[in-house]
Amino acid sequence: MDEIRTPAEDDAVIEAAVLRQVLALYPVQVTLDELLRELGGDPGDFAQRDAVERAVRDLAAAGLLHRIEDFAVPSRAALRFDELIVS
Q1: Can you give the pTM of this predicted structure?
Q2: Are 72 and 65 in contact (CB under 8 A)?
Q3: Of the candidates 13, 11, 17, which has an alpha carbon nearest to the alpha carbon of residue 54?
Q4: 3-state secondary structure 1-55
Q5: What is the rounded CA–CA span in Å between residue 79 and residue 87?
Q6: From 12's CA, which of 29, 35, 56, 57 has a CA 20 to 30 Å away?
């Protein structure tokens, strides 16, 4: 049986996936379209694009990503956290 999640839980899942992907690809700067493709979404799918754009916006608001035009790059805080988790 599929687990039923709230919209907030769905958003958290997408945020985590976006952050993992941006950190995994760093130092490569990725565009939103590339993130959509990397996460298995269709760049033309409005709902998926909206979810990724919200995730980037919310991660940027939390200080974990920077959005530079159409690119998403991890913040120093996110990179340091990633270093601590990996080691």
Answers
A1: 0.89
A2: yes
A3: 11
A4: CCCCCCHHHHHHHHHHHHHHHHHHHCCCCEEHHHHHHHCCCCCCCHHHHHHHHHH
A5: 12
A6: 29
Give the tens place of pLDDT for each residue, 53-73.
999 999 999 999 999 999 999
Backbone angles phi, psi at 18, to 5 degrees: -65, -50
- Quick one: tokens of 45? 């799918």
Distances (CA, A) of 49 to 14, 16, 31, 41, 44: 11, 15, 12, 8, 7
Say which residue the tokens 């979810």 belong to.
51
